[in-house]
Design brief:
The complex is a heterodimer. By secondary structure, chain A is mostly helical. Chain A contains twelve helices and three strands; from the N terminus they run ααβββαααααααααα. Chain B is 24% helix and 19% strand. The chains are: A mainly alpha, B alpha+beta.
Chain lengths: 258, 190
């Protein structure tokens, strides 16, 4: 009898915990959906199944090397601006401007993994919660999905991406992003290459203006990664994988029309 | 067309390395330069805080010019952000608390665009409609010849405190779940 009682309590506790976890995830996803809508309102999703498919295959293969269970969705947005965005709940968007800057799949992997780390560590979601936006989000969860409230949430989310996170969150996303790509078998030097290339842009270049306004300087990011032991990580063979090279080349070719 | 030219210019730059820039950087620590990456030590000795001209990079090694003599250093021995050259020390234009600066970035994604744009839920639905089969992911990894390294991969979490960064000790396990200590301040700026 006591045993049964304990078992029931255990099941109840489990269900309550599970329910609260599910609710929290839905909340996060709801916030992310609104935030994604706001970013997509500024730059539309690319109209290319091939690019979308490639980003999602690569993104999903990387997400399994990090932590956090989400419904990951990766997308390219049409903009010359050089930037990428991570939205709570697993929405990740990369601009065509940034994609065109990359030279191989390893570099693209680093960009996506950096964003995956932002989501897994709930960097943006925590800011939303801290700013009392959670109240609006929970209203949405209760089924009172008033379009006006969603609009407000989307607009408020836009502020996060316009202002950026703090340096600590960006450094953490760099570090975890490098760990993810290295675990997946990509070359950690890709992080150095991407950041070094970003470093070439002037702070007032309109394509990189928002990126520089919302992130630590690429030089600082390189320093932090090197001091974290970036150069001690194992590097894969330098032999070019023809398949990987070919699929990235296909991406570049398809990007040229956007 | 412009994109192609831009890509070409970028590729050309990368092929040339950093030689045309001769960037001045600051030594993070005392070091002896090598004659080549993973090569033999030279008689070029550099003290912490001294300036070197970076000529080019090869992986995690950089070739430097010190008073006309050249040698190779590990990239981690040099501070990239404490550079003496304007070409490296980019003005990040980081915004102060509460300020939103409207910019005119080409084709969207300026701060103003993000704030004033109308939410596009139609494209969110399109984004959500992209489905990938787990088998396709597996095939993607196999076709790419991706081989995860046998050892566990971990970098050292560091707090972003300028000028006070511990020496690297390699890929050691660490208390990874702690949030970055620099996090609080800026988040409070919101």
């Amino acid at each position: 009898m006591i045993g049964k009682g304990l078992l029931c309590c255990g099941i109840l506790a489990f269900l309550m915990q599970h329910s609260s976890l599910t609710q929290a995830q839905s909340d996060e996803e709801q916030v992310g959906r609104a935030a994604a809508a706001q970013v997509l309102g500024a730059a539309p999703l690319i109209n290319s199944e091939l690019i979308q498919q490639y980003l999602n295959l690569l993104g999903h293969s990387l997400s399994s090397k990090g932590d956090g269970v989400y419904k990951w969705r990766f997308g390219a947005i049409v903009s010359d601006a050089i930037n990428a965005f991570a939205m709570p709940g697993g929405f990740i968007l990369v601009s065509t401007g940034l994609l065109k800057l990359l030279e191989n799949e390893d570099e693209l992997a680093f960009v996506l993994a950096h964003e995956i780390a932002h989501v897994s560590r709930k960097h943006h979601y925590q800011v939303v919660l801290r700013q009392r936006l959670a109240e609006q989000a929970s209203k949405g969860l209760q089924g009172v999905v008033n379009s006006d409230e969603i609009s407000k949430l989307a607009s408020a989310s836009g502020q996060i991406y316009a202002r950026g996170l703090d340096k600590g969150a960006e450094f953490e996303a760099d570090r975890l992003g490098v760990e993810i790509i290295t675990r997946a078998g990509y070359d950690p030097i890709a992080a150095f290459n991407v950041l070094e290339r970003l470093q070439r842009f002037k702070g007032n270049d309109p394509r990189a203006e928002l990126l520089f306004a919302t992130h630590p300087s690429p030089a600082e990011r390189i320093d932090m990664l090197l001091q974290s032991g970036l150069d001690k990580l194992p590097r894969p063979s330098s032999e070019t994988n023809t398949n990987r090279h070919a699929r990235f080349k296909k991406l570049v070719q398809n990007l040229s029309s956007f | 067309m412009f994109a192609a030219l831009f890509q070409f210019a970028l590729s050309s730059f990368l092929l040339l390395g950093l030689s045309s820039q001769a960037l001045a950087q600051t030594m993070r620590e005392e070091a002896v330069a090598f004659d080549k990456p993973n090569g033999k030590p030279t008689n070029i000795r550099l003290s912490a805080g001294s300036n070197v001209k970076v000529l080019r990079r090869d992986g995690f090694w950089i070739e430097v010019d010190v008073g006309g003599k050249t040698g190779w250093l590990k990239a981690s021995q040099v501070s990239f952000s404490a550079s003496q050259s304007g070409a490296v020390s980019i003005d990040t234009g980081r915004m102060g608390s509460g300020n939103i600066v409207s910019t005119s970035a080409a084709r969207g994604l300026s701060a103003k665009d993000l704030l004033s744009g109308q939410p596009n839920f139609h494209d969110v639905s399109r984004l959500e409609a992209t489905a990938v089969d787990p088998k396709e992911i597996q095939s993607f990894v196999l076709a790419g010849g991706l081989k995860p390294p046998p050892s566990s991969i971990k970098l050292i979490p560091l707090a972003p405190i300028a000028g006070k960064i511990p020496s690297p000790t390699g890929t050691v396990p660490s208390q990874d779940n702690s949030p970055p200590s620099g996090k609080k301040k800026a988040d409070d700026d919101w």
